[in-house]
Give the backbone structure.
Amino acid sequence: MAFAFDEMKGTNGHVRPAYAGLDQWLHDLPPDVLDRRRREAELLFRRIGITFAVYGEAESTERLIPFDVLPRILALAEWNTLRAGLEQRVKAINLYIKDIYGRREVLRAGIVPEDLVFQNPVFRPEMNGMSVPHDVYVHIAGIDIVRVDADTFYVLEDNVRTPSGVSYMLENREIMMRLFPELFARHRVAPVENYPDELLATLKSVAPPSASSDPTVVLLTPGIYNSAYYEHSFLADKLGVELVEGRDVVVRGQHAYMRTTEGLKRIDVIYRRVDDDFLDPLAFRPDSALGIPGLMTVYQAGNLTLANAVGTGIADDKAVYSYMPEIVKFYLAQEPILKNVPTWRCREAEHLAYVLDNLEQLVVKEVHGSGGYGMMVGPKSDRATIEAFRAKLKSRPENFIAQPTLALSTCPTFVEEGIAPRHVDLRPFVLTGRDRTRIVPGGLTRVALKNGSLVVNSSQGGGTKDTWVLDA
Amino acid sequence: MLSRTADNLYWLARYVERAEYLARILEASMRLTALPLAYVGSTNEWETAVATAGCRKSFFARYNEASEENVTEYLAFSIENPSSIRNCIEIARQNARAVRTALTIETWETINGAWIELRRFGNGPSSREEFLRFLHWVQETSLRFDGSAYRTMLRNDAYWFSRLGLYIERADNTARILDVKYHMLLPAGEPVGGPLDYYQWAAILRTVSALTAYHWVYRENLKPWLIADLLILNEQMPRSLASCYANLVRFCDLIAAAYGRQGHAQRKARAIRTRLQNSRMDEIFQAGLHEFITEFIADNNALGAAVNSQYLM
């Protein structure tokens, strides 16, 4: 594996300009301050109740996500490029989804293979020929970005169903400002605290035409046992909207209502954090207790906006991912600003042959996997694991893609042995409304805390960092 | 507001109040069992504690004997007892977590902090000293919860529903302790246990934190009919039935005014309050204290049901 680019010290050990202030501050810092602050941060997170649940762990169902006290810093110029690339990509994704459930020009032009859409379990025939308010499908996108050198950012994954993590972006900043006022005094950091306002503006802008001028927005959560429940309640609070569960909502005629202490109240926009499958037991999984019977009829009648729309999964599937550069070109007639990680589609015979020959060097991912599950990192896997994946690949090649093992960039991170480089990624959040696209500068930086590890997922021992965009 | 949110707030307050009440019962029982038998008679205080907590049936389904060990375990720490202090805090916190957005940081941190702290006490105390500390801690948690709600919550329906939960629970608790001990609170002139009962009476007052209040109000030695008067009809006494209902009527009316509509809950609360206001202690004794209290508990439950069907479903 290639030598990783360090965002603080580059490849030559010289501190890069954006990190000069942090470097100096670390230099001036009395020993053990970081350790004390780290403990304080943990206490704060625990007290505020910022926890997440790990599925499959009966013992401690609520855990803290580890927080690293050293910020990850992007220079404004770097961010501006990212920003333009993100906007472009999400714009294309929205056009693509509208097309798939509409005229299907992308299929007729042979850009994306048909079976990839129609055989895909996340394709929703219910959406065929239906228009959604203001043609926005993906109102909230979390695009995972990795970096391999000073100039190259790759999109690793598009998350356009119910991306999570934005509460950490916001809370990380709050806690950093509480713990390190001195460090902030030395920098001018672009704020992220306006995210909830931007989100609310986005959601209100896409209300259905039948809504009043002050539409009612709610946030739909699966409930307190969901791993992201903290985030749901946090966002509802910041947005100033009701946090509803399926049982709080009823469908009467062509409208959806919530049960309130003053009777039923009409709902116009649902920011839903419940997957498609569970949204409406009459339309999708009949065993869903989280959903709202009849919701899809209201949606199809055009009296409701779901954010994100139903069926957006056909755009963030890992198999579709590899076609994204062509999708951007097809709809926007522009070169993609953000690159894709080179990807082998195992569904194609030549690609599969290459992958099988080079398993030890590659990262193999299940097309429908997420959260770091169902993947194999070749250089980090033992013989048996590799052989197990080889067998899986041979029997269901269309279920997999493969990518080179990237030397993800590293950031200085405060770990057991002191300050050491650890691999990071970045998830900026892109908001698309009727009027415009909104992106707060930065995003959620996830960091693989284990030495050498490339897996940043919180369910697999990853942590988070505050992410700064520095004003020059 | 969402009916479910109101429901969570209502039960959050009820469970915190119940946890405090249980802690008070247990503390009063510990004091009584520390006295020589000649002072308190040969009653089993632990059995009385179980009865006062209203779980005699479920307790004896599990244990043969109401020993100190069994009762403290069951009322304070048992996972099987749905209303043990542990479960009260657990359920209160579940309710709080479901309505994070309707709570202030201060109230949330109080209840979440208590829930975290609860683990420190593990499955039971290692000594009586530690147990007493635990009981005090529970009472402090309730005070902090109440105080933080009082000081930080907006005066809107969220606050009012949590108050409804608190006062319905409190009225129920006070009525229950009266019900269990009513035979000791017979009217003047009736022969009762004499000096033996003094400590039992003091224990009742202690359970509702009214021992000092009693002396301020009546400036007399402990007299059972005055104790009953204090706990039932005296509106100055925060845990009396009359005071609970003064508050319940007030909060029901505030909700009705805000929503521009009133219903069964308002009428029920007012009717119960009127009845308390029109009662005199000697008449209550004549008609039977036990009967009076039994009827009150049923009425109080009916108010709970009315609030539930009018707002929380």
Remarks:
- Chain B has two domains: 1-153, 156-313.
